[in-house]
Design a protein that fits this description.
The chain is α/β, with parallel strands linked by helices. The protein is 38% helix and 15% strand. It has 17 helices and 11 strands. It has a 6-stranded parallel β-sheet, with helices on both faces. Helix 2 links the parallel strand 2 and strand 3.
Length: 388
C-alpha cells in the first residue's frame, strides 16, 4: 500500500508543536501525527535534528520514519527571535511536545506555566530521563540509562555475561508512547473543562511500568529476577529451537497446548509423564524439556515445523528480520508495511500506522521533510497569517 497526502485520522484538526530531538520527543510526535494531528517540528537552522543522520546502512533512513507527517520550521530557540516564533506558534497549538533536560524551556523563556497562561488549553508533554521533579531531575538522561534504572537492562541477556541491549531504543519509545497516551487523556479532560495540563513522562518510569511483578516479587518474597537468556524461568516450554535451516519459536507452556505439541512430536506420553504433565513440573525441568524438544526440531526444516505447529494449534512462529517481513503475506494483507513516496529515493518501505481504528484510521499523509525549515513559510502563513 502506498501512503501520502491522505486525510483524516482521529486527531485531525489538532495542532502540535514538537520541540524534541533524537528519539523520545520525536517518536511521541510521530504517534500523534500518525493519528491525524498536524505536527510542526521546530529545528535548529542549518543542522536540524540529529535524527536526520541516524540509521544503518549506506542510506540511513530513520528520519523518514520518525519525521513522517511533520512540517519543518527553522527556529533557533537559543535566540530571542526563535523563542518569540515558538511562543507565537505554541499560542495556536493544542499540544507542545519537548524532551529537553528539565529547566531548558524555562531557560529559553518558554516556561510552560507562562505558555499556558497565554493558551489555557495547551497540553505540554515533557519527556525526560528522570521526570520534572525529584533529586535526579536535572541529570542528563538517555534511553539506555532509563532502561538500566527502570530495571529492564539488568535482566536482558545471559547470567554469565554483562547486561545486553534489547536491540531497539525501547526506553525512549516507551516514554514517548506514555507521553502520547497522556496527551490523549489530557485532550479528553480538556474537552470537558477547557483546561490543558502538563504531561510528565520519565524514561525510567515508562520502563518501570512494563516490568511486570519485578518489584512486587521482591517485596513479597525477596525474589530478584535475573538474566536468563531466551527463557523465562518456570515457564516451559517457551523458547527458540534449532531447525535444519535456522531457528523457530515455540510457546507451549499451557497444559492443553503442551499436550498438542507432544502429540505433534509423536510423543504423546510426555503430556502424561508426571515430570512434564503440569505447569510447575515442566518449569522445574525446563532445560531438560527444551533439550528433548530441540532434538526433535533439529530433524525438521523451519517450513516443516511451521506446518506441523499450525496443524496442531500450537502458538509458534518464525524469527523474522526485515527481509522476511517484506515477503510475508500477512504483513501485506494488513498493510503492516507501507510504501511512502520519497523525493530522494523515489519511494521507501516502512511500518504502517498502529493501532488500526475502524472509523478514523491513521495514515502517513506526507513524507518526512528533507530540508531543514522547508515548511517555514507555509506554516507561518497558515498558522499565523504571516507572509514572508
Amino acid at each position: 500500500m502506498t501512503q501520502a497526502e491522505g486525510g483524516g485520522g482521529a486527531l485531525a484538526g489538532i495542532r502540535v508543536v514538537e520541540m524534541g530531538q533524537l528519539i523520545a520527543g520525536p517518536f511521541c510526535g510521530q504517534l500523534l501525527g500518525d493519528m491525524g494531528a498536524e505536527i510542526v517540528k521546530l529545528e535548529p537552522p542549518g543542522t536540524g535534528d540529529q535524527m536526520r543522520h541516524w540509521g544503518q546502512g549506506d542510506k540511513p533512513s530513520w528520519w523518514r520514519v520518525i519525521a513522517r507527517n511533520k512540517y519543518s520550521v527553522a527556529a533557533d530557540l537559543r535566540e530571542e527571535e526563535g523563542q518569540q516564533l515558538a511562543r507565537d506558534l505554541i499560542a495556536k497549538a493544542d499540544i507542545l511536545v519537548e524532551n529537553f533536560r528539565p529547566g531548558t524551556l524555562e531557560k529559553w523563556n518558554l516556561d510552560p506555566a507562562e505558555l499556558r497562561r497565554d493558551n489555557p488549553g495547551l497540553i505540554v508533554v515533557r519527556v525526560s530521563g528522570y521526570g520534572q521533579t525529584g533529586p535526579y531531575s536535572a541529570r542528563a538522561g538517555f534511553g539506555g540509562i532509563g532502561e538500566a534504572m527502570g530495571g529492564w537492562r539488568g535482566i536482558v541477556g545471559y547470567a554469565d555475561r554483562p547486561p545486553a541491549r534489547m536491540g531497539v531504543s525501547i526506553g525512549d519509545t516507551l516514554a514517548a508512547t506514555y507521553g502520547c497516551m497522556g496527551a490523549l487523556a489530557a485532550l479528553h479532560h480538556r474537552s470537558k473543562t477547557g483546561q490543558g495540563q502538563i504531561v510528565d513522562s520519565a524514561l525510567y518510569e515508562a520502563v518501570l511500568q512494563v516490568m511486570e511483578s519485578t518489584v512486587s516479587d521482591y517485596s513479597a518474597s525477596g525474589t530478584k529476577r535475573q538474566r536468563t537468556g531466551s527463557t523465562l524461568p518456570g515457564i516451559a516450554p517457551s523458547n527458540v529451537y534449532p531447525c535444519k535451516d535456522g531457528e523457530f519459536l515455540i510457546g507451549a507452556n499451557q497444559d492443553g497446548v503442551f499436550a498438542r505439541l507432544a502429540a505433534a512430536m509423536g510423543r504423546p506420553d510426555l503430556a502424561s509423564d508426571e515430570r512434564y504433565a503440569t505447569h510447575r513440573a515442566r518449569g522445574a525441568r525446563q532445560a531438560e524439556l527444551d533439550a528433548i524438544i530441540g532434538e526433535w526440531t533439529r530433524t525438521l526444516t523451519i517450513a516443516e515445523l511451521e506446518t506441523r505447529m499450525i496443524a496442531a494449534g500450537v502458538p509458534a512462529g518464525r524469527v523474522f528480520d526485515a527481509e522476511d517481513m517484506l515477503a510475508d503475506p500477512h504483513f501485506a494483507a494488513r498493510d503492516a508495511l507501507v510504501t511512502v513516496p520519497d523525493a530522494e529515493w523515489g519511494e521507501i518501505r516502512m511500518q504502517g500506522v498502529f493501532p488500526k481504528l475502524s472509523a478514523t484510521p491513521g495514515s502517513i499523509r506526507r513524507p518526512a521533510p528533507l530540508g531543514v525549515g522547508q515548511d517555514t513559510d507555509d506554516v507561518l502563513k497558515r498558522w499565523l497569517g504571516r507572509e514572508q
